[in-house]
Structures are given as structure tokens and as C-alpha cells.
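Handout, section B. The chain below has 204 residues.
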Amino acid sequence: MSIFEYNGSALVAMVGKNCFAIASDRRLGVQLQTIATDFQKIYRIHNKLFIGLAGLATDAQTLYQRLVFRNKLYHLREERDMKPETFASLVSAVLYEKRFGPYFCQPVIAGLGDDDKPFICTMDSIGAKELAKDFVVAGTASESLYGACESMFKPDMEAEELFETISQALISAVDRDCLSGWGGHVYLVTPTEVTERILKGRMD
């Protein structure tokens, strides 16, 4: 078993019309044993920028603390919020610094940039970015997430339709992966508000 599969995870970010959604499952496991069913995998950097961390849970928490530190330094120096593109470059640099002993994490970054244009990207454990205009996925359920998102995604969805689509894609995908599941955690972000919702899994 790969170290990336040790705790299990499912992460997906999807863009809509001037909005985005980012969702994760809620399971924390040690291989096939479930430890917690309310584990946080998505973190708010500021109201228009979120990061989800799939992979080894201990590394995810350590990496998040480093990113919060770097973001606060940026805020003190620049006196403004970091743009999503800038934050993606920061995450990439932080990961690449440790390329010979990497954090076993696969980040998913989602934010609203200039003119409220949604930005999403993911990267591997040493910071190689993969940009997308529709959706990005990460974690042990990534293969089934690709399939579900490919079949459900439509361009320029309004916020509520986007929420419905990402939720259905996540719930469908985690049913096909025994290392992730136990419902979902969804953030829906528009230029004016952030909505957080908890999904119940099919077996909850």
C-alpha cells in the first residue's frame, strides 16, 4: 500500500459561473480501520481562497500550519489578501523545497481571483502544478471522481447547481473507494458569500 493511501481521502474542486466549490470526504482511517468520521481536509486561507489536502493526514496538518505562517507573513508585508495564483506558486515552492523528503500530500487549491474569476489547480507531492478550467481531483478516490465529474460537469453553472453537481459526484465516487467516505464537506464560494455544508453518506 502506498503511503498516500494510508489514511484515505477524496477531494474535488469545480468551477461555475463566477463561483467555485471544493469538497472532501470526512473519513480518517488507518488503512481499512476507520478512526474518525468528521476529519477536516479543506482549510480556509481567506474568504476567497481554500486549500484541500489529500494524502497522509499528519503531513497535511503540518503543511497547512506552514502555509498559514507564510500567508500571515505575506499579509503583514503586503497588507492585502493573496491571489489564488500567487498562493499556488507558494504551495508549489514549499513542496519543492522538501523534494528529497517530501510531504506526502496532494493539494487542491481553489479561489476567486481578479474580476471574481475562479481558479483551481492541484499538484503532486513535490509541487508540479496541474491547472484546469473545469475540475480537479485528488486522493484515493481520484479515479472514480474523474469519471463522475466528467459525466456530470457543465460549464457556467450557477452556484446552487454547482453545489448539487459536486455533491453528487463526490458521493458517487466515494461509494467506489473503500478508503474514503462517511459523507462529505462542501464549501460553495461566490463573490459575496461562503456557504459550508455537510453531506450525509448513503450509509450514515
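Note. The CA atoms of residues 5 and 140 lie 6 Å apart. Compare this with the example in section A.
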